[in-house]
C-alpha cells in the first residue's frame, strides 16, 4: 500500500471514529440539514452539558464534517458544503437509519 492508500485509510478511519460516538452522531444528524444550528440548540435537543457538546462539536469539526461561526456568546455549526460525495453517501445512509430527534425550544436562532 502506498502513501495515498494510507492517507485515505486514515481519513476513513477518522470519519468512522467521529461517527462512532452516539452524541456526536446525533449532533451531526441535527446539522446535516445544511442549516446553521446554535450550540444551545444541540445542548437542548441532546440533553448534554455545554462543555461536553463543545468537545463533541470540535471533534466533528476536526474530522472535516462541520464549519463553525461565533455569534456573540454562542457558536453556530453547519454541515460543510464541500464534503466528498462518498462521505455524504455514508453519512446519509447512517442518518436515514436513525430515529428522529425532538424539536428544540432554543430561541437563539441565526442572526
Structure description:
This protein is an alpha+beta fold and 111 residues long. The chain is 54% helix and 13% strand. A 3-stranded antiparallel beta sheet has the order 1-3-2. A hairpin with a 2-residue loop joins strand 2 (66-71) and strand 3. Helix 2 packs across helix 4. The longest helix has 17 residues, at 3-19. The radius of gyration is 14 Å and the shape is globular.
Q: What's the short version?
A:
The protein has helices spanning 3-19, 22-31, 39-46, 50-62, 85-96, and strands at residues 37-38, 66-71, 74-79. It is of the alpha+beta class.
Structural topology:
Blueprint (H helix, E strand, L loop, with lengths): L2 H17 L2 H10 L5 E2 H8 L3 H13 L3 E6 L2 E6 L5 H12 L15
Antiparallel strand pairs: 1-3, 2-3
Helix pairs in contact: 2-4
